Amino acid sequence: MRRITFTSESAERCQLIFGKAFAGRLPESLKIVDSGFRKVFGERLEDEYLMPGGEHVKSVDRVFEIYQVIRASRRKAITVVGGGSLIDLVGYASSGHTDIEKLFLFPTTTVSQVMPALKGFRVNFEFVKDLLSFNCLPDKIFIDFEVSYREYACSSKSVLIFPLLVALSFDNRLFKYLFNVVVSGKDISAEQWEDIVFSSVKAYLKGIETGRFVVGTEIGRLIETASRLKAGYDSSLLFGAMMELRLAEKFGTGDSSVTEDFFRVVKLLWDSRWSSRIDMSSLVDLVEQKGGVRISTPDGNLDKTYFVGCSVFERFVREKTWRGLENFV
C-alpha cells in the first residue's frame, strides 16, 4: 500500500492512500454513494445514502439535500463514493457544515482518481459551471486501483485519455510512455494500470503544487457553461485541451510534435458515446463576456499560462468550422 501526503498553501494536509479492495474497509462514517457504483459492483455499504452521479447533481438544491442527510445521520464524518461530480457536491456541502469534522473520498472513475479533488469543491448555479466554490482539502483520499481498472477493462479503454492528459500537462516522460502504450495497441495489465494511475497522480500533484492547471480545464468549463451543462465533462475537457493546444501552437508557445501525438491518441481512444459537437457561437459569446480566456500549456514550456483575448479567440474559431472531432486534425 502506497501513501502520499499533500499539503496546501494554507498548511492543510490530505493523505492519498493507494491500494485495492477499499470499499469494504472505509472509515466509519456517513457514506454518500453514487447509485451507478452500486449497479456495477453490487456492494452495499454501511450507513449509505444513494445519489445519482453526473454534472446535473451539482446543484444548490442537492446541497440542501445533503444537509438534511447529515442532520438525520448525526455523523461527524462523511465518505463520498463516486465520480468527480458527486465528490464536488458532497465536498462543497460538507466543507461548510459545522457538524462535519472529517471528509473522506473514494473516487470511482479514472478521471476522478488521476485528478483528485485537491483544489477545492465546486457546484453549478443557474447553468454556470462551477460558479460556487469552497476551498478545502479532504482528510483522506482512497484510490482503489481495481475500481478504475475495471472501468478500463470492462467499460471503455477510452478512460486512458485522462492519465495521458495529466501527463501531457505535467510530465513529458510519462506522456511519451503512455503514448507508446496506446499506439502499440496492447492491452494494459492490472499491474501496469497501478503504475499508470500512481504515476499520473504524482504528476498531477507536481502540477498543482506549482499553480498550474490541466490543459483544457478553462476552455472545457466554458464549453459546459455554453451548452447549459448539457455537454459531457469528458468530451468538454478533451475539446478544451485540443483547442488550448492549437492556440498555444498558433502563438508559438506549444510543441507541435507533442500536440500531434496527443491528437493521434485522442482519435484512437475517443469514445463514440461522448458528444462530438460544440456550440461554438455560444462559446465565443461567453469568452467575449469574460474578455478572453487563460489557457494552459504542456509540460516543458516556459510559460505556465497564456491569455487569449476575445477578438483573437473569435478569429481563431472562424479559421475552422469546428463542427466535430474530425476538424481538430
Topology diagram in text:
Layout: E1 2-7, E2 13-19, E3 30-34, H1 35-41, E4 48-51, H2 60-73, E5 77-82, H3 84-95, E6 102-107, H4 110-114, E7 121-125, E8 128-134, E9 140-144, H5 145-155, H6 161-170, H7 172-184, H8 190-209, H9 217-226, H10 233-250, H11 256-269, H12 280-290, E10 292-296, E11 305-309, H13 310-318
Parallel strand pairs: 2-9, 3-4, 3-5, 5-6, 6-9
Antiparallel strand pairs: 1-2, 7-8, 10-11
Mean pLDDT rating: 91
Biggest beta sheet attributes: 7 strands, mixed
Poorly predicted runs of 5 or more residues: none
Order of helices and strands: EEEHEHEHEHEEEHHHHHHHHEEH
Total helical elements: 13
Task: Write structural notes for this entry.
The protein is α/β, with parallel strands linked by helices and 329 residues long. It has helices spanning 35-41, 60-73, 84-95, 110-114, 145-155, 161-170, 172-184, 190-209, 217-226, 233-250, 256-269, 280-290, 310-318; strands spanning 2-7, 13-19, 30-34, 48-51, 77-82, 102-107, 121-125, 128-134, 140-144, 292-296, 305-309. The strands form three sheets. It has a seven-stranded mixed sheet with strand order 1-2-9-6-5-3-4. Strands 7-8 form a two-stranded antiparallel ribbon. A two-stranded antiparallel sheet has the order 10-11. Helix 9 crosses helix 10. The radius of gyration is 19 Å and the shape is globular. The termini are far apart. The mean pLDDT is 91.
